[in-house]
Amino acid sequence: MMDEILERARRLELNRYPDHTSRALREELAAYAGVEPEWVWVGTGSNEILLDACLAYGGAGRSALLFTPTYSMHHRQARIAGTTTLELPRADGFKVDVARAVDAINRLRPDIVFLCTPNNPTGTLTPLDDVFEIADACPGLMIVDEAYFEFCDTTVVPELEDLPQVIVARTLSKAFRLAGARLGYAVAQPETLHPLLKVRMPYAQSSLSQVAALVAVERRDEMLLRVSKIVAERERVYGELSGVPGVEAFPSRANFVLFRHADSARLADGLRNKGVFVSGLTSTPGCEGCLRVTAGTRPQNNLFLEALRALV
Ligand SMILES: Cc1ncc(COP(=O)(O)O)c(C=O)c1O
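Above: inputs. Below: predicted complex with pyridoxal-5'-phosphate.
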């Protein structure tokens, strides 16, 4: 893929501004997502899409509801936009309790509701029927963060026709392995996307990142093959972790597995000494004693599992 990106990049005229509508890329992403190009907008990573949505729909005197623990940047994006954040802790197993979520929305009337599914850092998938029930209750915007959607193959996008209040945020940083190109995209009804366009700077996506993303999306069959291997490895890692004494592993539909151990800080240090880097989530409320490991290749995962078993 890199060779083709470099080949196509050679033909760019970098003395000229990029296509500010990212037309070619939006058309390819739209074909991938199964919508019309007008339903897609791109950003500098999905982080920028999420920030734009907060700038457009949030702001001073407005609020955003988050189901915690969740992706920490959602707090930050809301606050950068001057939006107050409200939290509803997830229930057992990090599930969103729909009845409590609807009740909280009816009481608090948030302008934005964030739902990350599969959720980072827990890997929890919120079933589509639950997403729809929460969306029905939303008085303002609902942002469904599908950064890890390829690893679970469950998406609200086909239902967006009936969901004018929903923006789906996705990224090329995970399944497409293109984090360095900084390319994310939103899918929503065109009228729902319009306010986002008003808070953006022109020419935000460089010609280079547009072409890199275009090549990656054109070659999506390679990505899907890779994803199926990662999904199989994620299931294996989860199964093996569940059998390690003292470890509580949580089922995941993303490309990582969250697990808890009473001695997690020592485990993280010991793993690092063996060249395995895991994310420590001890300072995240609700994730005390938890570590998150990304599913890598089979040999990488074996190295992790062997190192962990030796440490416990
Ligand atoms: C849930 C979630 N949303 C969004 C992002 C941001 O991705 P991007 O690289 O597209 O900004 C991440 C990155 O880790 C993520 O985990």
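The mean pLDDT is 97.
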